[in-house]
Amino acid sequence: MSSSDRAMAVWAAYAATVGASLAIAPNFVLSTLGVAETDEPWIRILGVTVVVLGLYYADAVRNKTRNLYVASILGRGFVAAALIVLVLTGEPWQLLLFAAAEIVGLSWTYLALRSEAS
Length: 118
Prior knowledge:
The chain has one domain (3-117). It contains five helices and no strands.
């Protein structure tokens, strides 16, 4: 398994785990992070969506779909930037934890792809 495959496989597992946690036990995740619990369905919908993204990433690893690796770098950068903006506009600082995970994941994938290209 190449370094970029490994980076994406780890990211697929991370996305599936976070997504499943939000879909199944959102208030456990929220309270663990020190964020107010909710009865709204949107966090579960987000969780399901993130699980699906994890499945896409896992399929990209199985099929070595490098184009999706690159697209995920751009998408994860957008998500990180959006989370930072949300925190700057008054949302809970804990969103920065997810932004940091996005930045670490996209950096690992980018550096792995760059080293494989040379």
